[in-house]
Amino acid sequence: MKTVINSWTLSHTGDLATGGTEQITAHVPGAVQLDYAEALGYPPYYYGTNFRQFFWMEDEYFIYESTLAVCCEAGETALLHLSGLDYRYEIRIDGETVCSGEGIFTPVVLDVTRYAGREVSLSVILYPIPKLEEYRHIRNRSQAAACCKPASSYGWDWHPRLTPIGIWGEIFVETYAEGAPVSLEASYRLSEDLAQVTVTAEVETAGQGTVRLSLTDAEGREVAAAEGCGTLTLTLDHPALWYPRGYGEQPLYTLAVTGAGKTLTRRLGFRRSKLILTEGSKIFERSFPKGPIAAPAQIEINGRRVFAKGSNWVNTEIFPCLATNARYDELIAMAVDANMNIFRMWGGQYINHEYFYEKCDELGIMIWQEFMLSCNRHPDTDEYLRVLEQEAVSIIKRLRTHPCLTFWCGGNELFNSWSGLTLQSHPLRLLDKLCFEHDRFTPFQMTSPMHGVSHGSYVKVVFPDAERRAGDYSHGEEFICAVKRSKSTGYTEFGCNGASPAAYIREYIMDEENYLDCNGENDIWRSHHGFKAWNESCWLGIPEVHHFFGGYTSVDDLVEKSIYLQDMCYRSMFEEMRRQAPLCAMAINWDFNEPWPCAAGNSLINWPARPKSCLAQVKAALRPTLLSLNIPRNRWLSGEVMEGEVWVLNDSDTPAEPMEVEVTLVFDGVRMPIATLNTEAVEARQNGKFGTFRLAVTSGIPERFAIELTCKAHPEADSAYQLVHRTDLAVSEDGSTVSLGGNDDFSDFLK
């Protein structure tokens, strides 16, 4: 019998010896901040700068209290289950400390049989959030190096300083008869030819007893069974194999253990995952000395090479308790609709709830799972490694049977100057060891990026420093130009910054007065990452608006133009990365979602689940088969000649048929034919280039125009590309740029 403990009170103190303050009602699962916001009448934490109302909580102890009633018969065992304790905790029963520790992802299970027939007090004490001593009085993410708490809790470039404290998991008492299963751990091993799978189950029971282990397929048919105790194995010939979406089906099995009238279940899927070198990565080879020149960046599932196209998933919510199944359904459905097949679970966030991984299993979304290390100099101390091992083992054992789990990664940007870790750093050596011990046949890589793989940039245009400081944004290089020169085996973080819709900013972030006061010194614009999130102009993109359009007339005009550019650039970036296959095997943007309402950023979806218009452009770019426009850049000046190529991108398992393609210039309702080109058949999982065209950019083309690629026989492959004509600049006969009027100075906005 399972009894959930729902009735809780909460108090706080700066010193445990003095006792707590007056108690308030608490919610479990929940968060300290949410309970006190409700009790004290705080305004919404996500609006304006209200998140600062919680700063006082960082250095307090919080005391959850409830009553524990243990009801069990003679011969039964009663266990108290606690999960989601964030972060350092002490558990007391009737005033006696029965357990203490730290961590977020390791459940605590306590035998409370000795309290049977009694009603006792239960207290969970949460200690102040850990802070690295040298940064104790500086509010930055470097404090996260002191613990295994996710680094984004301490603030990020899309997340304010709002560090969750609380119990975000369930707390309950469950009774078990003699011989009933208490826990079920599972792993499996596929034979080399993938024709047989051996499932190993580790079953813990209450007392002594024999249990029955069974495996059923998706239709509910039992396909294997065994009886015994402790460690049991099952063997199945010719298992149905799991593939990512677009590459095959997603069959799932159910593993069940039954004993003394109780059944525990776990869902399984069988796949062989590998990380291998991309076909084009020979450019990184050298004859001697040998070493890790290029990191394997191609995912292979059951022997099939997969082009990974997707996004970086970050915290669903600031407070993990708010990440509901319904929210997961919304967000994952958007990724599926956008033709994605992978999420990189970035290393600075919370590990998602079980339901998230179950949905990715069902829908064929691969998971690149990172541990909780990100952008910090994580220490080699015994204490840190002890907690890291505890947390990592819990995570590995929980996730390893999910077929969506494609590979493990130590964390984010750990081989960089701001992190300073190496292959010899003890945290990474430990994680590699643990993944090998507990999930040997799922690949592990130390960090991202590694050699051959790219992170960045996160803005649409890179400006020379001197011109940027002078406020001249007519020059600069579009990020797409750098990508076209790149020789990357994968793009696992890249961003195209842009504003959120004006209506969204007004609804979730600020009032009209602050909205109109759009500048780098406005505290609300900064706090919601319109300015100074990564550099002084991030993420609103004022320099890019000046580069492409020459300026703007109002805040609404700025926001609308910023959105237009984000849409335009995400489309061209994803398609360019697809064109670079087989050298490139991954196109994964930064980022998919955000846990906080941002005035601007790189995400495809606004919090909580508001798709931005750029998501539709990404969806178009990631279709299995499409006509693709390849041009040098997205901004054009009068007098220039655009030279374009027409490609067929085919990531489907069937050949693309030959097509007759119309290339058309479109603006203001006008359609002007440019060229008619013919493509040849393109094999499955291949791309092809077919024909070129030229377009003279004249003064008759307005500021915004489009190029369309259409095929009457295959309209599902049609594509349209929005572009910009900088009408106030022209190219003279000698190739120099001539101003036709306009002003690129916007220094007042950054102050």
Summary keywords:
751 residues; Jelly Rolls; Immunoglobulin-like; six-stranded parallel beta sheet; 14 helices; 45 strands; globular
Please provide a brief summary of the model:
By secondary structure, this protein is α+β, with helices and mostly antiparallel strands. It has 14 helices and 45 strands.
Q: What is the secondary structure topology, with strand pairs?
A:
Blueprint: E1 2-4, E2 8-13, E3 24-26, H1 32-40, E4 61-69, E5 77-82, E6 85-86, E7 88-93, E8 96-102, E9 108-111, E10 119-126, E11 166-167, E12 171-176, E13 181-190, E14 196-205, E15 211-216, E16 222-228, E17 231-237, E18 253-259, E19 262-268, E20 273-276, E21 298-301, E22 304-306, E23 308-313, H2 325-337, E24 342-345, H3 354-363, E25 366-374, H4 382-399, E26 405-412, H5 426-438, E27 444-445, E28 453-455, E29 461-462, H6 465-470, E30 477-478, H7 479-485, E31 490-493, E32 498-499, H8 502-508, H9 512-516, H10 523-527, H11 542-549, H12 555-579, E33 586-589, E34 600-601, E35 605-606, E36 610-611, H13 613-621, E37 625-630, E38 635-638, E39 641-650, E40 660-667, E41 670-678, E42 686-696, E43 704-710, E44 719-731, E45 737-739, H14 747-750
